[in-house]
What we know:
Oligomer: heterotrimer
Largest sheet of chain C: 7 strands, mixed
Number of strands of chain A: 12
Order of helices and strands of chain A: EEEHEEHEHHHEHEHEEHHHEE
Shape of chain C: globular
Radius of gyration of chain A: 20 Å
Largest interface: B-C, 64 and 70 residues
Radius of gyration of chain C: 26 Å
Strand order of the largest sheet of chain A: 6-7-8-3-9-10-12-11
Distance between the termini of chain A: 27 Å
Strand order of the largest sheet of chain C: 10-11-12-1-13-24-14
Number of strands of chain C: 26
Amino acid sequence: MSSLLEIRNLTVTYRFQDRQAAAVRALDLTIREGEKLAIVGESGAGKTTLVSAIMGLLPNSAEIEGKIFFREFQLNPRILAKLRGKEIVLIPQNVHNSLNPVFSVGNQMEDLLIEAKISPNRRRRIILDLLRKVRLPRPEVIPRSYPHQLSGGMKQRVLLAMGLSRSPSLILADEPTKGLDPVRRVGILYLLKQLVEQRRQSFVLITHDIKAAVYLSDTVALMYQGEIVEVLPASLLNTHSLHPYTTALLAAAPERGLQVLRRINPGVDSSPIVGCSYAAFCNLCRPACLKQKPVLRKVASGHMVRCHAIA
Amino acid sequence: MGPYLLRRLSVAVVSLVGVSFVTFLLIFLVPGDPAEMVAQARFGHDVGEREIEMVCRLEGLDQPVVFQYIKWVRHLLNLDLGYSLISRQSVLSLIWSRFPATLLLACSSLLLSQIVAVPAGIISALRKDTWLDVVLRLFAIWGVSMPSFWFSYILIIFFALKLRVLPVSGYGSFANLVMPSLALSLGIAGHTARLLRASILEVLQQDYLNTARAIGIRESKIVFKYALKNAMIPVLTSVALQLSFLLSGTVIVESIFGWPGLGKLILDGIFTRDFPVVQGCVLFVAVCFVVINVGVDLLYAWLDPRIRWEARG
Amino acid sequence: MRKIVLVLLIFFSLSLMVFSGCAKQETKLEELVVGVGKDTVDPNGGMWESRGLVFETLVTLNHKGEPRPLLAKRWEMAPDGKTYTFFLQENVKFHDGTPFNAQTLKENVTKLQSVWGRYPIDEVEIVDDYTVRFRLKEPYPLFLWHIAQVSRGMVVSPKVLKEVSGEAAKGVGQMLPTMSEDKSGSKQGMGQMPPGMGKSTTTSEEVRITAPVGTGPYKLVEHVPGQYWVMEAFDGYWQGPVGIKRIKYLVIPDAHSRVMALESGQIHLTGISPLSKIAAGDMEVIEKNKDLVLKHEPSFKVSLVAFNSAKGIFTDARVREAFVKAINREEINKVLTPAGTTLDTPVAPASPFYFPELTGTREYDPARAQELLAEAGWVKGPDGLLQKDGQPLQVSLIYSQTQPEMVQVANILRQQLKAIGVDLKLSSVESGTLFASLAKKDYDLIVAPGIGSTSLDFATDYHSKSRYGVATDKELDSMVEAYNVAPNFNEQKLIAKKIQEKILADNLVLLFINTNKSFAHTTKLQNFKPALEEEVNFMRHIWRARLSK
């Protein structure tokens, strides 16, 4: 499988007046064609920033360093404008404000298809098809409806439909089950699994829900403080995770006893970190951890860890 | 929509009654005896007691104010607004003869202001903090703060005296319309431009714009369709309200340019205590206000579907 | 976005081209355009401002204020002062062809009460076709002066005098032009009666003028209410060919706009009535312009800055005298000139009852003023202001916004009075309020418009029964009453002098201000002299003027 998306040494810093915060630090990541990857981390770990950076949708206050390549193209605003929606799609996090309130759903979906230069008749059919595909009840009513008339779950499905409409090569789904109740969450996950399995598209799931990550993806990457600290096959996550942070994260899940997760509060501290970012809370910490930042090292096939103690 | 409209209309009627009653009261509360002013206007300044008394009796001005008001309302229900005490013309025909001029001026000023303000607001928002934005904002503030009468004189001096391309005063040709419209449009343009700029900037921060980008809608469409429609809503309502103000007669501009509009009619009526004229005009203007306000509400609901459903529920 | 800017640019350049195409500033040269402040062609006033162009009177006044023949070529007055015999001009026709003669004059006098009803006329006798004898009930010494004014002595074609009674008297109407080019489009049709004008002595039956048909040099041909009206020369005018064939009155409510229209050439003449005043600040501009002429002609009009001698501080004659002596009239004259001046007597020099020997009685003497105030018990307080029994000497001056020259005068008064320790508060009100205060005698100092002086009846302003008068003195009242019934001109003149002496001696008025008629016109207008006797219609002699190229 060839590489679809390659991120090299990406650093994203937010500047606000005289303060700054690095949301993503020197991140490297490669996504192959057809790969299903989940990026797991807490809110504030930098996941959304990463995804926004890939899409080229960061606010003006953000500074980017590093390079991102899509196939053979280095991404810049001009290229991204052409690729967005067609090749790379983001299904956003905030469902409730993601659709324009003053236009009907159908209108917004049509706009998408207009970009693809599809004729008016075909558009209507395609819209209905898409709505059916995302399992919306009574799809003929939806196009006339306005966003505020739909529930959260329905809006999420509409966004999904929009994202899939032009068969992009790379789908980024940012917390697709956020804010949904357990029943709906299951529904969306099931739908995603079906949609994703059918195609040869690359799929990146951003989530803090470990179970969803395991369910939907082949590979899981864990993010902490803007860095990837561990990458491993999804099937091994629950049993063979190595990085201390991953262990702590797993332990904090309700089913495992809700152990308190000790770490730097994500997103609060912004100062550059010397040494390992998890050092202060790590039970495997040794002197080298404080002085030198560890690098991601391969410990087994498809398994990488960023830790002095382990690799 | 039905019950909603009904509610709005009943509120409107109540406010119309209130407005007309207060106006009626004011004419009598203001110093100066109405009978005296009317007698002076009819007979010249050297009136005596006898003329004043005669006028008083003839026009029923000696009745208590409330009775006079009720009499006026009764006539009103027969669609009779009465006659001017001074010129004896029917108030309705007076209003009808002056209103078209005011309407024309109001519409052309509004149109002119929007033609200037909308592009200015959009450019200002999209090129935020560049020199272009700064210049446009300065113009907007200048437009809002400049008094219309001062600007009118400037226009006259420039166009009528120096360039000699436009007449100073009058009504009838397109040339007459230019300067008064410019004078009035300035304030509205400034206000609209600033409002639009702020509105667009706010809308630009909304998530749904980013979503639209994320799913691949092109930037120009995002600005001109997605952002603009949302941004226009507060602006359109403000502009429609400006129309109300313009219709109530911009006295100063009308005076300066000799524009035979409603404003001057009301003003003269007040000075001569010609209360049927004042009442009739104020009522007319109030009705215009109400109609425009209801129209704005409907417009708002049409533009923003969220309001529609709230109104229904 | 670029497209929008482009569209805008195209729009504006197109507009500019259209505008310059619309430039049409110079009006046709045979038409004199007059800038006025208000449309006074209203049904009630009956062409108030241009009445003098349509209607004429038996006599007129020359610039010295002496009666001169007009429709009456000569007259005789009996020694008892009660009989006037007028010998009428013989070749005069009304606009509608009706001849002007003794018969038509008599019809006017008997029917048109709103004009002639103010005179104590007992009988009108037709001596022959062109001789009429008026018999008055009592002597009326100023009879000739009064009938010289258009509103008080006009002659109308009998064909347009119609009786109206009852409800129709309250009806709607409008003066109609002789040619029905009425562009107003209003719903008033022919045949509806306009209400009358002037004082009516009858209540239910009134004779109204239904159309402006007179003997004067112009006819009304077009009227667009609120905007303009047009007069055209009357071909058969008895005094000879009319110099200016068309006169258009253009309504421009704002004073500054009128002057600017004069400068731009849109109008030729303005300032010709109290409603078309030229603002003091604009006068300089006109003077500097070599294509324009600014003129100040004498008038009878005297405004009175009067004391309220019935109530309050000014009941004390010493206080009044002190105030009069505290004012330096030279300073005030500096701001009033040339549009007006202060007078030392209650009447203007042009008046028949002007007595130059009465001037010089009001000297500027601030020292004496302070003595008088001290005598009256006013002592200087700690803040420099005078006070008595703990109350400061504070008086208010009420003036109206329609008297713009008063602003500067008021400020000077305040300064001059402050110098002797008086706190003068200024109160600028709208004219309705001013008249109300004047009628109710609710003021300390007020600027009274001096209505009597305009109508050549100066004494009425000093009678206590006068609604807008300024005096409440019984002695003065009896003098005024005697003045009104004086048997002849010379006796009336004597009484007039006594009245004036008393007014001055009692210091009833702080300032007498005589305002000139100030008007401006293009140098193209030649040979125009305003009528002295008219306050409003002083364009009546414009038919002799010429408009050059």
